[in-house]
Design a protein that fits this description.
heterodimer, A: 275 residues, mainly alpha, 12 helices, 80% helix, B: globular
Chain lengths: 275, 273
């Protein structure tokens, strides 16, 4: 569903041309519902069913997109939002993997963290925005930490499941060969749960982006989310659409990148994930 | 000797269930105690972190004067009606996609491109179209709940062993009955897992939408207390949210266990309890 059909590999220049043609065809087939949606939107506009204030025309939005791209109104805020999302995700991954491994190796850690994780996991972390503003201000720090707080729990769970799922016989063999506890973590368990960690990162990447954008919308302080709210306040609807488009494209691009990375790094994961 | 303790612990020697599940929450009690102690000892500034007892007192106050009841009711109404509508739509579209290549070709790209869009970003647009209030809020929640349920239903139905469908057909089961009696029950575990994700989304989106623009709701309440500097009340509202979200998740997991009690793969479905 998410994978676009792969074009057959060609060997000669004619093959390359055919490959491009096939890719183009696949892409058109893939994107037709999106094109249809845009056409419908433009038709509603042309027929005067809506007012531009509520629904700007497609050319207007494209023009606004180009203007904002040139003036840096997209790149600057997007860079800020991405910095917040990925700094938070990096923190969450570091702490989540550490806590998850710790929980899998120590009964005490499991006892201590398990109920806290199971309470915190279903909590809507976005409700903590006012507290994070209070503690860490309205600038980047509060957003980075909110992203980290949101993403750390799924990372803990992913790592823990990966580490617990490591085959007993592998651990026993390593123990029999006199592997120390720290080596056991680095050389045996961590590599074995890499697919789970990667899968955790893939699941939390959109969460990180969404949390960063939403926190910006609520708390302000720059970034694409804050820009969107600002534009709405002044009824610049085409700018609102451009910012939504930017978020949509960003999410889609990062998801595609991670999908490619997974195919490259751990091709067997696809099968494991379906179970 | 020790008969009382023995009777308390139970004849078989193993602690009774209530004690076991109670003991599970000892770390939570310890964490709350730690919170109380560090504030009381003045290790953190009381202005920035109200103590646990102050928070509980504020929450009790808001429960008594009806503030929590009213706003929580409004938020739950938005969250749960969005969840229900989104789930049913999602199951329908997911089923359609899994059984028809044409539907897959149409909805697939739409789902893939909009999956990682923050649905909260649509709130400003919906405010323009529908004004501030329930419609904007519920619509946002519906869209957010729709996608995980579609994906879960799709994968669940796709994973149904074809042998089941073939056998049913061979025994003369008509098409719609295959859907109702074979595909849906077999995919139910996966569908409910999707609904569980949607449940967490419905709270996130309701509160986000309320914090972005609303007149009522628990998200708005927390936000207003935060802006006015009444931090014990802000923490109290947040505590109510944490409790409700946790209780809702537990209730759904319990329901899943009940509904899927015939399913062998149940444990993989509710993997993190």
């Amino acid at each position: 569903m998410t994978d676009r059909a792969r074009a057959p590999a060609g060997s000669s220049t004619g093959g390359a041309l055919r490959r491009i043609a096939a890719m183009l065809r696949d892409w058109v087939f893939y994107a037709y519902p999106l094109v249809l949606l845009v056409l419908l939107w433009e038709a509603a506009n042309r027929l005067g069913l809506t007012r531009p204030l509520f629904l700007p025309s497609v050319p207007d939005v494209i023009r606004q997109f180009a203007t904002m791209l040139v003036s840096g109104e997209i790149v600057g805020p997007l860079a800020l939002s991405l910095y917040r999302a990925f700094a938070g995700l990096a923190l969450a991954t570091a702490f989540g993997v550490a806590i998850g491994l710790f929980m899998s190796r120590s009964r005490f850690a499991h006892w201590a963290f398990d109920p806290l994780v199971s309470i915190a996991l279903p909590t809507p972390k976005i409700a903590f925005v006012p507290i994070f503003i209070l503690w860490f201000g309205i600038d980047s720090l509060s957003k980075i930490l909110l992203v980290a707080f949101t993403c750390v729990l799924p990372m803990v769970v992913a790592t823990y499941h990966g580490a617990v799922g490591v085959s007993r016989s592998v651990i026993w063999s390593a123990e029999a060969m006199g592997t120390s506890e720290s080596k056991m973590l680095y050389r045996v368990i961590l590599p074995a749960c890499m697919p789970y960690i990667f899968s955790g990162v893939r699941v939390t990447t959109p969460v990180a982006l969404i949390t960063a954008f939403t926190a910006e919308m609520i708390a302000g302080g720059g970034g694409v989310g804050a820009n969107l709210m600002f534009a709405q306040r002044f009824f610049q609807t085409s700018t609102v659409f451009v910012d939504i488009l930017v978020m949509l494209i960003t999410g889609f691009v990062f998801d595609s990148i991670l999908l490619r990375l997974r195919d490259r790094l751990i091709p067997w994961q696809d099968e494991a994930e379906r179970q | 000797m020790g008969t009382v303790a023995q009777r308390l612990i139970g004849a078989a020697g193993a602690p009774p269930r209530w004690l076991q599940s109670g003991a599970r929450f000892v770390p939570v009690v310890l964490a709350l105690t730690l919170w109380q102690v560090i504030v009381d000892l003045g290790l953190v500034n009381r202005d920035f972190l109200p103590s646990f007892s102050d928070t509980v007192a504020a929450l009790a106050h808001m429960i008594r004067n009806g503030e929590i009841g009213l706003n929580l009711f409004v938020s739950l109404y938005r969250a749960l009606s969005g969840l229900v509508i989104g789930s049913f739509l999602g199951i329908g579209i997911g089923l359609l996609m899994a059984t028809s290549a044409r539907a897959d070709g149409f909805f697939g790209p739409l789902v893939a491109t909009t999956y990682s869009l923050p649905k909260a970003a649509l709130v400003p647009l919906f405010i323009l179209w529908f004004g501030i209030g329930d419609v904007t809020n519920i619509l946002t929640v519906v869209l957010a709940c729709l996608l995980p349920v579609i994906v879960a239903t799709y994968h669940g139905v796709k994973a149904v062993p074809p042998v089941l469908v073939w056998s049913a057909r061979a025994m003369g089961t008509p098409g719609p009955a295959v859907l109702w009696r074979i595909l849906l029950p077999a995919a139910l575990g996966s569908i409910l897992t999707g609904v569980r994700i949607a449940l967490s989304f419905c709270f996130v989106l309701t509160i986000s939408a309320e914090m972005i623009a609303a007149k009522t709701g628990i998200g708005k309440l927390i936000f207003i207390y935060g802006e006015n500097g009444a931090y014990a009340f802000m923490f109290g509202g947040l505590m109510a949210v944490v409790i409700v979200a946790y209780a809702a998740d537990r209730a759904l997991v319990a329901a899943m266990h009940y509904i899927l009690r015939w399913d062998d793969s149940l444990h993989s479905v509710t993997s993190y309890d």
